[in-house]
UniProtKB/TrEMBL annotation:
PANTHER family: GH3 DOMAIN-CONTAINING PROTEIN. It comes from Subsaximicrobium wynnwilliamsii. Coiled coil: none annotated. This is GH3 auxin-responsive promoter family protein. Residues 390-496 form the GH3 C-terminal domain.
Length: 507
């Protein structure tokens, strides 16, 4: 009998039985007030007169009217760079303990995003919420005795001036509570290995010694790790070595594109729980099995605003126009796309994180990620968002009985001077009929997106497709950024980046 597991599950059940439904709107109002009060005497708070905002009858309205939108480049260029010059109390009291390095999907240069002690605590509280939510997933008691494999970036953080730097997954892993270390795999020694391939090799070598019940990480890199373990031990599927694997907490990107290829590595079904941990904070987590939507962490150090996702509000570089209107949680509507704006205990203010979301349940504050503002393809009026592209990939998988976990697209003129959408699709499909795939993809997008259909009747001449091995995408990421961690493949490229991509493929 799993005595320890029963104890842990019992604690989770008791905690859940005494929990009340969160009033997310009230929590958000309180979070905004707390953020402004704590930061009112910082350089930023003095400049934007946080004291006056706090005295307003409608604090949220005054806040939105007083502050502009910031993306990383604007906030770093005007404010955060001062911290690297030794200044304190810049956008948050004191100085941050960490900086999260993030190249994301945009290029080689790492962003350096402050991570304060308050943010570490907020992430910890959101993580505890996720653990207690496991009670909703009807897991057996012995699950709570199994080990958890977290595949993130290296925990060997770099000392720089008076702070430490690394990717957010490495920062959070280096701050796990002492009582959790016995469950955490691959363990501190392996987790510190900076080279991703070397770290995965050590994981494969040690896999037989662990009883893994849950996996956590970005789907694309998790798949590669699982494939390495399977190949190293000459297995048919991962359950042959980890028979008690029951849960995968997916983060960083939408799991949908990887569902079919991930399941192919399993010997039996696993529960997939989506999470939304970004370098700027722990945004949301799935808390119930009836949906794959995630609940915003409305009480964990982040204040949310939402800008309707419309072409007239988005600049070519993915930033927002200055007068784009924002709304708060109390005014959002179901099934409408919004650009996500956050303000945080790390001193990010009205910050464009770059993601677009839609609400699936307003009362529960549950959302789905639908794409990236930078990946909104509106050349010649096609208005093609990532969620539409992902949906088309799922249709292709069903039609051609394969998987397309990776893809990228560029809108540019062909040799005939006409505009085309040039697609590269990652698949193991043998002898693919690229013309047939292009036609099917084109029709799928026409049927799901009226703006795309209109564009196809006018300036958008057609679709061109090339099918390549999925590892070519991984190799591109390795060359331009690095493997593993928070690195994600760019879904939409401009012409300059696309030329580099095609030159890379020809090498």
């Amino acid at each position: 009998m799993a005595i320890l597991g029963n104890i842990i599950k019992g604690i989770i059940t008791i905690k859940d039985s005494f929990s009340f439904e969160i009033n997310h709107i009230e929590k958000q109002q309180a979070i905004l007030k707390t953020l402004l009060e704590k930061a009112k005497d910082t350089q930023f708070g003095n400049y934007y007169k946080f004291g006056e905002i706090l005295a307003a009858d409608d604090i949220a309205k005054a806040y939105a009217e007083r502050l502009p939108y910031f993306d990383y480049n604007k906030l770093n260029g005007e404010w955060w760079h001062k911290m690297h010059q030794g200044e304190t109390n810049v956008t948050w009291p004191g100085t941050p303990t960490y900086f999260a390095l993030s190249s994301g999907t945009t290029g080689k240069t790492s962003k350096r995003i402050p991570v304060t002690d308050e943010m570490i605590e907020a992430i910890r509280q959101a993580g505890i919420k996720q653990i207690f939510a496991l009670n909703n997933f009807d897991l057996p008691s012995d699950f709570f005795e199994k080990e958890i494999m977290a595949l993130g970036s290296s925990t060997d953080l770099e000392q720089r001036d008076k702070h430490l730097e690394g990717e957010i997954s490495g920062i959070t892993a280096s701050n796990i509570p002492f009582w959790f270390k016995g469950y955490y795999k691959p363990g501190e020694d392996i987790a510190k290995i900076a080279d991703w391939d070397s770290r995965v090799q050590r994981i494969a070598e040690g896999a037989k010694n662990w009883d893994i019940g849950a996996l956590s990480g970005i789907p694309s890199w998790m798949e590669l790790m699982i494939q390495k373990v399977i190949a190293y031990h000459k297995l048919d599927n991962i359950h042959e070595i980890w028979p008690n694997l029951k849960v995968f907490t997916s983060g960083g990107v939408a799991f949908g594109p990887y569902k079919k290829s991930f399941q192919a590595l399993m010997g039996k079904p696993v529960i997939v729980i989506d999470t939304y941990l970004a370098s700027e904070g722990y945004i949301a987590t799935q808390v119930r099995p009836e949906t794959d939507a995630m609940q915003l962490n409305t009480d964990s150090g982040i204040y949310f605003e939402f800008v309707p996702f419309k072409p007239e509000y988005i600049n070519k570089d993915g930033s927002l126009v200055a007068d784009a209107p924002s709304i708060t949680l109390k005014d959002v509507q179901l099934d409408k796309e919004y650009v996500l704006i956050i303000s945080t205990v790390s001193g990010a203010w009205r910050y464009l994180i770059g993601d677009t979301i839609t609400f699936t349940d307003v009362a529960r504050a549950e959302i789905k990620i639908t794409g990236r503002t930078k990946f909104f393809l509106n050349t010649v009026g096609s208005q093609l968002s990532v969620n539409k592209m992902d949906a088309a990939m799922r249709e292709l998988e069903d039609e051609f009985e394969t998987t397309f976990p990776e893809y990228t697209i560029c809108a540019k003129r062909g040799e005939d001077g006409e505009f085309y959408h040039f697609w590269y699709l990652g698949s193991e499909l043998e002898n693919p009929d690229e013309s047939k795939i292009a036609n099917y993809l084109d029709e799928a997008l026409k049927s799901s997106n009226k703006n795309y259909k209109v564009a196809r009747g006018k300036a958008l001449k057609g679709v061109k497709v090339k099918v390549i091995a999925p590892e070519r995408f991984h190799n591109w990421s390795a060359k331009n950024k690095k493997k593993g961690g928070q690195v994600k493949m760019e879904r939409v490229m401009d012409e300059e980046k696309f030329a580099e991509w095609e030159a890379f493929l020809e090498e």
